[in-house]
Amino acid sequence: MAKPIVAVVGRPNVGKSTFFNRIAGKRISIVEDQPGVTRDRIYTEAEWLNIPFTMIDTGGIEPDTKDIILSQMRKQAEIAIETADVIVFMVDGKEGLTAADQDVANMLRKTKKPVLLVANKVDTKDLPDTFYDFYQLGLGEPMAISSANGLGLGDLLDEIVARFPKQQEDIYEEDTIKVAVIGKPNVGKSSIINTILGEERVIVSDIAGTTRDAIDTPFTHGEDKYVFIDTAGIRRKSRINENIEKYSVIRSLTAIERADVCLLVIDASEGVTEQDTKIAGYAHEQGKATIIVVNKWDIIEKDTRTMNRYIKDIRDRLAFMLYAPILFVSAKTKQRIHQILEMVKFVSNQHAMRVQTGMLNDVIGEATLLNQPPSDKGKRLKIYYATQTAVRPPKFIIFINDRELAHFSYTRYLENKIREAFGFEGTPIWIEYREKGGDE
User: Fold this and answer.
1) Does the annotation flag 251 for ligand binding?
2) Strand locations in 198-301, DSSP E?
3) What's the pLDDT tens digit per position in 405-421?
4) Annotated binding-site residue? 183
């Protein structure tokens, strides 16, 4: 199921970044060190009381800095209202109440989402006189915290988690392949969906999605069951200015969370942009099977090397996603559209594939003979045993003598050997090392 989303809004310099860094620093992801994944985050994965959630960094999605502060805050509040399950409205406890705070509070009072009013920079137990002015905002009792000193964060996280919606059971049968069509605005996501549905003459029924008013479109193709998970804005024009592309990442978060397979749609006339790398990076980090779909291929002037140049550019820009197949399509002319569902089914099977332990260890053993494990100061990495512990995505645990000797380059080598032997096309592979006693 999708993780709850928490959005933090507030004017600049109220301490949002300090708060994010403090929360994000408590989580270490096993795929965090993959090269090529953008570090310019506008979200962070967090966990409290064993409940994982996604936190949106609205400080990282401020539009053009020439805009006035109030305009920036309005857009932050809009994306929070549209996307989040819980909204944290952060104000400056030292500076006190401002007119800009009042304006955003007026917007937030109209939403049906839970809103927590948080006064940051309250570094002592003695509340400043200005603290009580925040009651005027009509958002309930303010909570005093200090992100810099870590004061009050536990209580705040308790309150955030307590307001999460109850998770709904997945309404689809287990063999239904859930497909998220993701990408920037105006790259043709909805056109691709409509073309697939029309071309395949499928049985279509629109039902309300399980989260955030999305519209899911379940359909069958032959004996296979699918559901398209719409990112916000596919079915209805968003209130958010479509020109602010950074918001497209946030629109994709929930769809990616719920999906088995992601179709990352790229505009052929633009190539891979910074926003494409951010959206792709999130799908990769979530361990989702992914297909790169280059749309509007019909408008590109071509010679015999055009497609190869595009493939090279995509592989260079999305170097962390070399496993993802690339399709060049046109929703307008229907070129290669029929290949999309075939590829979705294929990578979904690869994503769920499990290999036999004996065969896996044969591959690892042969790989270590061809290329000896690294050594440091006379001590060599020893690989004792490997096993697959999970699917969607495939996860492997390798038992070794010393984790510090397991360099990234050798991990990539082992991953490549596993892929050569078994495939795993379209899906990331997670490899985790565990130390095991043994003779040196």
Assistant:
1) no
2) 203-204, 207-208, 215-221, 224-229, 261-267, 289-295
3) 999 999 999 999 999 99
4) yes
